[in-house]
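Just scan this pair:

***
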Amino acid sequence: MDFEASLSYLRVELDKAIKGRFPVDKGVISKFVSQSGIAPLLSEMDKKKLTRHLETIYGTTQQTGHTLTEDFKAWYPARKPEIPFYYWKRLHQHWIENSVLPIQVVQTIDNVTDEIVGFLGDPNDTNNWKRRGLVMGHVQSGKTTNYSALISKAADAGYRIIVVLAGITNSLRYQTQVRLDETFVGKSSLGSDYNVDVYPISYILEGFDGSKKTPRHPYSGTTQSSDFSVKTARSVSASEGNFAEPILFVTKKNEKVLGRLNDWLRGLRQGSPLEGPMLIIDDEADNASVNTSKDPAKTTRINERVRALMKASRRTSYVGYTATPFANIFIDPDTEDEMLDNDLFPEHFIKSLSPPDNYIGASKLFPQESNDFSKACVKEIPDDYQDLLPLKHKSSQQVDELPPSLEEAIIQYLLVRAHRVLENDGNQNSSMLINVSRFNFVQQQVSDLAYRFLHQIRNSVDTWANSNSWKDSKLLTRMASIWDAEFASISSNKWSDILISLKQAISPIEVKLVNMQGGGLDYTDAPDHGLHVIAVGGLALARGLTLEGLTTSYVLRNVGAADTLLQIGRWFGYRPGYEKFCRIHATEQMISHFTEINESVEELRHDLIVMEKQGKRPREFGLKVRHSPTGIAITAANKMRTAESIEVALDLSCKHAQAFELFDDTKINRSHLESLTKFVEELNSDKTSDTAPRDKALIWKNIPAKIIIEFLSKLQLPQTIFAFGNNGDSLLTSYISDRVQSELSHWDIALPFVNKSSDKNRPFPYKEEVFCRSRHSGDIEELDQGKIKVTSSNVVADPNPDDIKFGQPGIEVKAQKLMEDDTDLKETHATLMSRERPILVIHIFDFKDKKNKSKLSQGEDLVVSVSVGLPSTNIPIKPKSYAATKRFLELLRSAPDENETDEEVDS
């Protein structure tokens, strides 16, 4: 079968059938392929592969995301009909005609980048201007694709100088240069006129309007082989910076390189700023670009260079792209004035992108409640590495052998390769990631040992795979056992099939060192059978670099900062047809941190959605993240200017905050129960309160806020991110007090229960006919000073938002309407946005955990905790100052200074 020819035929016929209606249901596509005119010529394997490809192209959907803006001036919509599109037209046509992206994803990118271009400065405006914005994506979700479209449209609109700051490693800069050569330049920028590859996109418009066209190409101020230098710029002809075609620079974030570029640009007009207009795309904008100096009066060298680059032109637009926007872009400045004066703060717009629905991200792999998919894909590494390759080690660490768990991970990668060969997908690029050290010397040893292990397997396959005596090979027997345990239940192939295909699957695989010394990955020269690598490295594998067809990951890294940890997740992305075969091997602590961090990051993304609906501005979101405990904890300590004190605020607008940290103390638990009993008696005796018993909860309506604050002040709950504190000293009670005369003046109270007796349910001590809810799930994390942290999200409140619906009939209808209008909106947020009054939910349960020896988990005493559900607010959040002691930072979360590089990067 000629796959491309068959796909083209089916696409033409399918386009006729659907008549532009998207998305197309999977069942429709499967039926269409099986009944098509070429169906008799196709094998079942061919039909399966074509169906999967068509499902991706026609069935994938993507939302347009959410935006906060400062002063949007809609210049682009009016100018768009007059713009002579060339670069964008050919890129759009290339994506559609060659099935590079799903059709509806292309439509979404078109709409989103139209919006972003409109936020940039108008290139026809000859006044001086600076525009700054941020685009928030997800790790490995297509940010480069988005800014490829943005650059193309900006160039068509009149931008003439385009600078892409592509990370801090040579491998990432090279990868970005190649991607932009393919999507924007149209030919390989090799620094000479010899052996230049002209990419297919250059000819996509040839004959588009019935005429022959000579391809246009932007100037290239950098090449695939070289970062910016005066030598690379000599071929660029420009009179005082007036470029006939746009000029593209793809540079590392290196102070020497950026200094040379800035000097060259300014030299075009003898030191004066250029006319521009200039567009700066800052990829991985939270890394290296931001100012990490602990002295507020100083800046780091790279931050200084980037800010100077913005001033090289009178008219400059700066757009940062990142999946983890929580460094000091938001939280570093000491004052709001300084934050806005920071040339990298996204003052004018923040755009949050929504990933396509086939994106495999942290929410699917590390959900609060694990599911069959996450359990199958995410594997906890046993302690077999401790003696061989401890988490904490020096650059001189000797590695004599691979941990057995790493050998097993390598075998899993080989087995999936064999499966994909049998599925007729063997020529697609594939990879495995091994990230176990930040030191080049250690990485080299691991690479050598992985190569040796792969060689041993090759020898065993060559000797035994075609023999009936394959069980005599310990390695093949081990591989058979791993196949049966991991993949047999999800594959139509049997071990005997896998055994036969192993030689073909393994033969093209190479072990490649990807670091400052070993180089990167070059997919442009991939052979016809694909590039198949076991990539061993550190930072170069953890920031922006794409490993195509990543199947298996093995990570042993001691990472403290959340943004750095998320960026290690190269396994996020798109795995069409083989997502169930992917495996992520990580330590128990890393898996736990990923789960917790993902929840925090998603919460901030949803905060932006809520703020968008409230008409908030970027500076308000910036201040929110800057002050919030989540924002502080989510980035490295050296990205905070920690002097003698630090300001922390809590924005509980549309939040369901839960006190899931508890004291492991019998006396405290009993005092809580006594306080609750008295509180309920007082509520029932108050004739003015509106009590409303229900079959799922005791409910009191319209309760004055003063009573709520008094009750919360009696509870001794640990400082769970400062939301709940002891003796009323908490950000929660401060937040309520600031709104006690307006939005939070009166509350609903709910005390959920179950109405069936069982061995698991104990009766309330004051109401025998109803019973406490039990909690028999969730992990317990031991904290210091007699505290424990219950890490399951449903230990306090139920995982669905039912607890915050009490007291307001019909709230489901209002919430459902909001979610229909915005499919990105979570039910919890929609419910809280629909509430007329805030709600205090009191949780009383017996918590039993036989695995844990804590007093609380023995179930001797009933446990009381609380959660609060709060509607939107229009009152500004007031931060509180706390001493920035070591203990303070520990309470937030361990957030050590992160090394920006594994080892030094050459300029």
About this structure: The two ends are 48 Å apart (CA to CA).
